[in-house]
Structure formats: structure tokens, C-alpha cells
Amino acid sequence: MIQTTLRITESRALSYRIPETRSSQPKFVNYAVALTAEASDGTISEGSGEGQPRGWMTGDNAGNSWGFLSEVIRRLESVELDISSTARAVTSVQTQMAEFFTLAEQRSPDSVNRHPFRGSLLAVETALLDLTARALSVPLTALITEGAGADTAGDSDLPQEIAGPAAGAESSDEFQRAARRPFDWEQDTVPVAQHDDLLQALLILETAVRRADHSQGVLGLDLGGLLDMRAGKAFVRRVVALAVQGDLPKRVILERVLPRHHRGRTQLLQDEADAALRASGRRDITVELHHQWRYWDHQTPSRQLQVSGRPSVQVIRPTQYGSLLRTAEAVERISSEHPEAVLLLADFPGATSLSRAALRSLARACPGARAHITDAADGGEYPVGAPHGADSGHGVALAYEAIVGDVREMTTYPAPPQPTYEGRPVAVYHDVDHLHPLGPNGSKGHLLERQALALGLSTTRYSKGAFRAGDGSRAPLIFKWSRNPLSSAASLALSTHKEGTRMQLQRAGVPVPQGRTFANGDFATAKQFVDRIGYPVVVKPAMGVRGIGVVAGIQNEQELEAAFDIMASSKLGKQDFIVEKHINGRDYRIVVVGDEVIAAIQREPASVFGDGESTIAELLLNKNIARKRNPHLWARPAKYDAAARHELKKAGMTLSSVPAQGERVLLANTCSLSQGGDSIDVLDELHPSIIEACIRTVNAIPQLEYCGVDFLLEDHTKPLDQQDAGICELNAHAAIGNCEYPMFGSGKPVAETVMRACIDHYGLTARSEPAEEVALHLTIRGKVTGVGFRKWLQRRARSSGLTGWVRNVDRKTVEAVLVGETVAATAVAAATILGPRAAVPTSYVAQHVEKPDVRDFVIREDTAVRVKNLAKKVTVQAGREARRLKIYRPKNAQEAGAA
């Protein structure tokens, strides 16, 4: 049966960081698209592609490139492609991509950017071509050749591949052998700071010397901006010397020798190369230097070739075309119009094995391309793609297990089932988008202020974590992160010291594990204590936080020795430590305010539950995407690290394993939420005896009014006297987001309860109910003018659906009014303490005002400020003109009149 149609049944996009290399600072972010489709005969096919969004260089700074790609992925679901022949398959892909190119122009808010989202579009087209090629059982080269209209199917052998930046010295000895002879540092006056970089570049050159194919007559090298000006000159002189000696082809092109911010000096390096060639007397050798070119279509390199005074080597990047098919067509047209030109196909830095496979297919399909450059050290070794074993498509399949730890975003259509925990659905929170701009700990530092403003108080914020709130009549209350004025400093100090806490709780008669504190390094005495109380035990720092250095469930002396090493090597390893009896049970955080338990969560280690179809890698990705919709957990993903690998190995599984329906697979041995643990709301299920013990525990610490009780329980629904249980820690500044935003179940209003308790305790005047909408007047101080603060605030306010205005007051003050929903308005207000990248706000004051009559968020110009700025500009211009005319400031009125 001949396949005629191919219907896409699943479309997925992923955003992931490339591991950092010497030449990839900062880390690059790539997009991958994976498609699954069913043919008319029921056959299932898959295809994948990668794009490299690189800001202005690929048009992906035109707007929200990830949002655009997500919309494209949604539109791909259920799309049908005609695969009755190779030609019709290519036409179907071209038709679909033409729609997406039009959509890209519509989604770009900047009309100046005429080539938006090319890096994103390349991932989509490559996946579509790979999908159809695999469905037709033909190599990707065949489809590209068909689309380009080439007369030949291209060379069967790959063009020469040249090593990219930082390609590979493994020792200083290799550096010293670079380019065949030692380097005379004094003669070439290369600064010491550039020695390693220049040696690295020379090693790349030596590799090129060994691989050079002199019959091709051209060699291309991309250094990725590795060198400064002096090192660049020394490198260029070495290249000329090797070419004169006959060790290099007679035409050499060097791309991106200098970093981006010095690319304007490339012509100076070209002058250096020309001078060295003239001195050698060789007129048959050409050394050309290029910085980054924007090649959006074939006209750009074509024009460059027309104005060039000599035969040229041009670098063509498919990412800037957003299409393999358009790139192949451009290569064909350029080579026909300029047959003397040498065209090099290249990736952008950070391209991985997935991109490399597509580039090789493109190179085979383009007989007009004489060679291509690769940047192998920037990402080519990062195994995003793995060979799928079939001689079709570009030969590589997306390897989820390779990128699971680096994925930042994922979009899948149709949407996969939400993760569950023992039948409990994932909790949904609608304020996550408002809290994202505040950073990973945004909810921790903001929720109390949100409630203060909702209840009618005014606030002054000094940092991301510290603010004060007041009613204007009484002394304001001071807050820092989750710390509040309900508890005294003495109670905070006592609850932080674990040994002192245990002794106090023992006197109160609440269950605590048997244990003892030991001096730093006194492991011998600790072993004797363990021999007396017996295994299993727990080892932890005496004054610890966030589970740092804690090792639980120690079963024997060998594990005890390892636990001592782990604890000692942690950030808190240089203090006293505690050894205590391990309690078999689950981990619970129970929050107490005054004499009331207001929230309780069960904390479980990171895990996934099988569905009988998905691999562990896919389940983990889906779990982390669900966590990204949680305001407290979005920056705390479940990790694939040494602990996860250890747990999988114990279970006899890998990331490629497919667990059965409902089977739980552990990925960690700690319940820490920061390490990917799950939180489950259990307040309504707590047994009364547990609630009573928690209240008695907090009351045992004088002046402690707010506390998180960490309880180990076998079953939270049973009485304490019927189970093994113990309180292992008190946290007097427990993160509010833990119980406000549990992963499973329903969140509890911890922030509102704490703020009301503070208001009642100190007698402040506040609203009886939180306001759903507010109008806030902000006075923001610091380095907030001349840094784009007003434009930034306008964008943030509009994206959050707020109205109001913003204006400059003076050189260090900005004034604004935010009107809208309380959740959105207070989040934007909190974000002003961060501001745009160049700003350094030091504080803001938020006060309630009457709602102004505005329907948009506008930038207001203050008349006095505008006049002052205009006067300043006039003064500056007058000074420049005076200096030009050599007119100096007169000493008196008579000289002024003469002037």
C-alpha cells in the first residue's frame, strides 16, 4: 500500500541550555521540535529538528520567541502532509512553512525586524522534513535537493569539516606543540592573559593544517571571538606564514577572530594580513577576515560578492534563513550567479549533534558549497541527538535522556495527562505568571507584602526580601522573607540550635528522636554513641538549613563513615554535628501560628508514576513542566543527578525505561522540595493528637508565635501513641510558599493568616477583608533614571493588565501609579525593587490612592523636568560650540558683552 498522507498526532517543543564551554559564554539556549505522525497505512513516524535562537542575529529578539514557537507547535497538531511523492512532500512542507513565516511577521511587534524568529522556524522546518523523509524512507538530502531544484543530488561525500572554537587541547604539552613551533611571546607582545586563548587558537590551526585538503584551495576557520586585538594580529601573522610555507591552501578565510564588541576592528586585522602577504612577495595567496554577517536571503551575500574586489569565501548559516530549503535554494542561486565564489555552510555556536546532522544533509545536497565550518566544541559533543539506526531522514533522533537535566520549557500537543500523587491532582495556581518576574524566591519575599497591601496597609520595601508595613498611625512592622514580628529574636535563636531545641521539647513531653550533639570532627565518640543506641541513625549539622549535610537512614558503620564525609564536605561541615536515632516515617511540615495549626504538607522525595507508555525521561520532563506552573516550585525542578542515577540503578532502570501503569519510580533519597521533592496538602486529615503535639511544641519555646514543625510520622491520620513518630526540627522562619502552594491538594492562606495575626497583635488598623483591586502610588528611589526604567515598567504593567502612569521626578526618583487586580498590581510593585538590568533601585514606598481616570498605562512627562533637561541640553551644546570657536567663560559682564 502506497502511503499518501501523514497526519501529525503529537507535536512537542523543548527549550534547553547547552552546557557551558570556554567559547560559549554565557550558556546558549536551543530549541528542539519533535513530531510524531501516523501515515495512511497506520505506520508511525517521528521527526526532530533543532534551532539556535541567537537574538538579533536570527531575528529571535523580535518578541517572545518561545511563545511564538509554542503557538506553532499547537497549530501543527493534526496537520496532514501529502507524501504521495517526494515532490509533493516537499511542497506540503513549503506550504506549511510559508504559513508560519507569515505568522512570524504578524507576531513580531517590531516592524523594523523584517526577519523574525528565524532560529525558531528552522527547528520546525527541520522536524517536518525529517518526519516526511523518514515516512518515505529516504534521506533528508533527497528532500532538500528536490526543494532547491538542483540539477544534481549533490556529492555523496561530506565536504571538509573544520574544527571550531576550543576544539580540543587536553594538556599544556599539546598547547606547546601548536602550529608546529613554539611561540615567541616577547617578539609578538601578546599579553599574558591571552596566552592560553592564543595557544588554543594555534591548536585549532594545527588541526586544520593536518586536515587541510589543498586540492579544494580553500580553508575556513571560525574562532568564535576567541582573541583580543594583539593576540589576533599574532595569529594572523602565523596563518600567513603557514600559507606561504605551503602548509595551508592558498585561500584562507578567518571568521570571528575578535569578540563581538571588537568586531569593528576586523579591518585592522585584514590590514595586518595584507601587509604580511606583501612582505612575503606572494600574490597568489589570499587571507580574508570576516566578522558576523546577517545573511537572511541570497541577495545579501550576492551583493557582497558583487562589491568584492577579489574572489571571496562566503559563510552561509541556515539559522539565519530559518529554513534548510531556502538555504539550499540560496546556495544554488549564488553559485550560479557567482561561480567563482566559495560558499561555506556553518552552524551558530552552541549547535549540537542534532543540528550537525541536518547541516551535513544540507551540505550533501548543495554542490555549490565547497566546504562547511563546524563549531564542535560549543555543543557538537552534547548528545541531544542519537542515531536511530535507519537510513532515512537526517539519521538522528531526539534523545530526551541527554537533555532532561537542562530543559527550561516544554510544550506538548495534545497536552499529556497531569501528574498525580496517589490519586491527588496537581494544584492549579493562577498567579504564577505574575510571580515569575520576581525570581526563584519571589513568593517567599512577596506574599506577606501582598497581604499587607490587600488589607490596606502601606509598605516600604528595601530589598527583594525586606520590607516594612504600617497604617500611618502606629510604628510600622518589619518583615524579612518569612520572618515576622510575631516571634522574638531569642526564640528564633533557640529554635535554630537543634540541640537546645531537643532539650526544650523533651522537657515539654513531646516526641523527639534520641540523639546527641558532638564537637566538630569528633567522629570517634559519635561512633561509640551509635553503637549504644543502634542503627538506623541520622547525621546532620547542629545548626542547619534546607537539609544541607543531612544524611538519613544510615544502616551500618560503612554508611556512617560515608555520612560523616558528606556532612563534613557540605557548606555547614565546619560546625558541631548531631547524631540521632532514625525514625521510620514520612516527612511533614506543619505550620503553627499562635495556638492554631493553619497548614500541613507531606513532603515526598522526587519521583514519577508510570503510565505504561512514556519513558522515565518523558515522565520527568512532564513532571517538571507541571512544577513550572507552581509559584513556589517553578525554579526547583526534579533533577537528574547522581542521586537520581543511584536510585534508578538500585531499581534496575534507566531514563529510557518505561514503568508500568501506576508504578512509582524514586529519583531522590531526600524529601527536600529544593531538590525536586513533592508537597501534598494534608491539613484536613491530621489526627487531633498530632495537632495538639504541634501546638504544645511551639508553646514550649518562649515567645515563638510562628513556626514550621518538621514531624516524622508513619501515618498522619493515626494517633501519636499508635505509631513511631518524632519532631526532628523547628523552623521559625519557614517559607510561606511551602504550604501556600503545595504541588498536590489545595493551598492554605498562610500569608493572610500571618499578616492578620501581626495586625491584631500590634493593633494596626486594616480592612476587614482583602481588596480584590487596588490603586497604588509608588515612589521608587535609586539609580532609576536614564536606564529605561519607565519603558520597562510600562511593558510590565501592560502585560499584567494594569492601568496607570509613570514619570521621572528627579535624577534619583521615579513616581508611578498602578491600578488593577491586587495580585497583579502588588507583584509589579514588588518587581520595581529589581527594575531593568541597568537599574539599581534602593527602595520604594507603596501607598493607596484614589483610582485615576486612565484606561492605559502611560508615560507622563513632568513639565519642570522637561524644561530642566532641555536647559541642560542647551548648556551642553553651547559649551561644545564655545570650545569649537575657542570662546571661554567671561570673567565679568564687560568681557561677556565683548564676547
UniProtKB/TrEMBL annotation:
Family, as annotated: Belongs to the acylphosphatase family.
Protein name, per record: acylphosphatase
Catalytic activity: an acyl phosphate + H2O = a carboxylate + phosphate + H(+)
Keyword ATP-binding: yes
EC nos: 3.6.1.7
Biological processes, Gene Ontology terms: SOS response
Domain ATP-grasp, first and last residues per copy: 502-759
